[in-house]
């Protein structure tokens, strides 16, 4: 049955719809561990890992009763940040960040931080990525920030998290057309996923269902890391939700089979899963994990 299913899926692979997202051409192939995690059912919305911290938060932010949303007050000449209530030291973890492009302004940054990252500064600055204790992605310009330095555009070349690595990247001299393409920021929609692999020490992002690769590598191991964001825009509202996670163990065979089936069907045809020639146990697994 397994061989028959593989042949059946392969013979119909050309019928699967392709992505029309502007991020699709910049997407990077994922490991099976990450692919299974991204395609698994999300945890309950009220999970405590979805909460912004009421303590580690700039006073310019209002925290919702559910603790999943912060809204910045219209304070001038102030840079304000917040981090999640719970951090992680190990495992692969995915959070959803919802932030309307119409309410970002300049210096709109999402990323991760340790407990030591400052969450307020006078003037208009990048806070997440503004010091050695945080790593951030500025959504309007696509710039990566760490230790107070703008490292490079993302997506693009994979970056290490240390600013001294910038010179290595600049040894490559791209053509003028490549430079123009690299300097055009990718429009980031309201929804972006933050992907932290604390075991591998990497941070990346998913846009429109496409993994854009590793934004930062060599993150500190064994240190508690928190999703974080910073803003200078009055009225900006940012929601956080923990979606899923995985240990460093390889995915189960059943999970890999379910992933292959969901990828074949695509988002538009998930309701056709019960029509596939699947063994009863595998069909029950795929239907229960939609």
TrEMBL record:
CDD domains: SOCS_ASB_like. Residues 237-290 form the SOCS box domain. It holds the Pfam family SPRY. SMART domains: SOCS_box, SPRY. GO terms for biological process: proteasome-mediated ubiquitin-dependent protein catabolic process; protein ubiquitination. Residues 30-247 form the B30.2/SPRY domain. Pathway: Protein modification; protein ubiquitination. GO terms for cellular component: SCF ubiquitin ligase complex. Signal peptide: none annotated. Belongs to the SPSB family. This is Uncharacterized protein.
């Amino acid at each position: 049955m397994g061989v028959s299913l593989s042949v059946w899926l392969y013979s119909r692979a050309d019928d699967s719809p392709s992505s029309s997202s502007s991020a699709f051409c910049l997407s990077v192939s994922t490991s099976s561990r990450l692919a299974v995690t991204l395609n698994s059912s999300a945890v309950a919305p009220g999970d405590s890992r979805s909460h912004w911290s009421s303590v580690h938060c700039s006073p310019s932010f209002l925290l919702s009763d559910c603790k999943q949303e912060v809204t910045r007050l219209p304070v001038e000449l102030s840079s304000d940040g917040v981090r999640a209530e719970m951090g992680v030291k190990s495992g692969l973890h995915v959070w959803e960040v919802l932030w309307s492009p119409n309410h970002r302004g300049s210096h709109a940054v999402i990323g991760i931080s340790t407990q030591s990252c400052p969450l307020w500064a006078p003037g208009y600055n990048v806070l997440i990525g503004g010091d050695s204790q945080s790593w951030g992605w500025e959504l309007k310009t696509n710039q990566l920030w760490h230790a107070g330095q703008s490292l490079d555009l993302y997506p693009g070349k994979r970056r290490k998290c240390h600013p001294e690595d910038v010179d290595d990247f600049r040894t490559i001299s791209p053509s003028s057309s490549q430079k123009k393409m690299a300097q055009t920021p990718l429009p980031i929609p309201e929804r972006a996923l933050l992907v932290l692999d604390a075991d591998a020490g990497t941070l990346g992002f998913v846009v429109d269902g496409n993994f854009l690769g590793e934004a930062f590598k060599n993150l500190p191991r064994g240190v508690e890391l928190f999703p974080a964001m910073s803003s200078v825009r009055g009225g900006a509202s940012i929601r956080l939700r923990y979606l899923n996670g995985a240990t460093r163990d390889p995915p189960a065979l059943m999970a890999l089979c379910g992933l292959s089936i969901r990828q074949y069907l695509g988002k538009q045809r998930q309701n056709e899963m019960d029509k596939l020639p699947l063994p009863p146990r595998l069909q029950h697994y795929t239907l229960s994990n939609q």
